[in-house]
Amino acid sequence: MPKHEKNDVELVRTWVLPPSATLGSSVRVKGILLELRARLPIASKKSLDIEQGELTLAMPASAKAEFHGAASVVAAALEDIESMPVIPREIQDILSIKTSERHRWLKDGRLPSAGTRTVKLRGRARKITFHVFDPRVVEDLLNRGVVDEWREEDLAATAENRRRAAYKAKLTRSLKNAGKSSKTIERHPDDAATKLRGWEEFNVDGLLR
Predict the structure, then answer these.
(1) Is residue 199 part of a domain?
(2) Pick from 31, 52, 83: which residue ends a domain?
(3) Is the pLDDT of residue 181 over 50?
(4) Torsion angles phi and psi, residue 127, rounded to 5
(5) Is a pLDDT exceeding 70 seen at residue 69?
(6) Residue 195 resides in a domain
(7) By three-state DSSP, how is residue 53 classified?
(8) Residue 38: which domain range?
(9) Does 11 reside within a domain?
(10) Given a cut of 50, is residue 53 above it in pLDDT?
(11) Of 115, 107, 108, residue with least CA distance to 134
(12) Cα–Cα distance between 52 and 16 in angstroms, integer?
């Protein structure tokens, strides 16, 4: 076989990601791929790809040493891939929730954080820090379908807050109007009497004694 043809022969190895790792999310699958690629040497990163939940590492036969090294890295990483923390965009896809809901439920404790992670944005000096989540906790929330319950609770809480706000506003207006009426009475207690025609003559005649 000619040398150039032999070099074109690929070394291939595949791994199937378990559902407990992907949690039914295509975003999570992409996140796992990026995480695995980040652990590989720069020259090997693009040699690892994924399709329909199956990871494939493919290299030419001439890169036998690099292939075996990359395969070992991937195999070791997959041993605990099910415990890889869930990042914000993944949990939003898994639970089908909005960014605002994630922030609100994280703040009130319904969505427990598993800690924070700091990363540097590609091509930038700035770093960002965000909360990550335990995949088993996320899986439990998904299986129990608690998101619908939380949304109902939020709607009820919003309605109650609006009712209270309306009552408070009404009470404030009532107290303000009552205060104005009281000041008017205190400011002019004898105005009506002093403006009565003939009041002084009436008083001189002693009819009030």
Answers:
(1) no
(2) 83
(3) yes
(4) -110, 150
(5) yes
(6) no
(7) coil
(8) 1-83
(9) yes
(10) yes
(11) 115
(12) 9
Cα separation, 135 vs 141, in Å, equals 10
Mean pLDDT value across the chain: 85
Count of domains for the chain: 2
Instruction: Please list the residues that pair with 129 across neighbouring strands.
Output: 118
Residues 57, 70: contact at Cβ < 8 Å?
yes
Identify the CA nearest to 33 among candidates 10, 11, 13, 53.
53
Residue 107 has pLDDT above 70, yes or no: yes
**Residue 78: partners with Cβ closer than 8 Å, 6 or more residues away:** 15, 17, 36, 55
Closest C-alpha to 41, from 18, 6, 10, 74: 74
Residue among 115, 86, 104 nearest 147 (CA): 104
User: Phi and psi for 112 in degrees, rounded to 5?
Assistant: -70, 135
Q: Which residue has the tokens 């040699």?
A: 47
In the numeric block, the tokens 């190895």 are attached to 13
The pair phi, psi for residue 206, each rounded to 5°, is: 75, 20
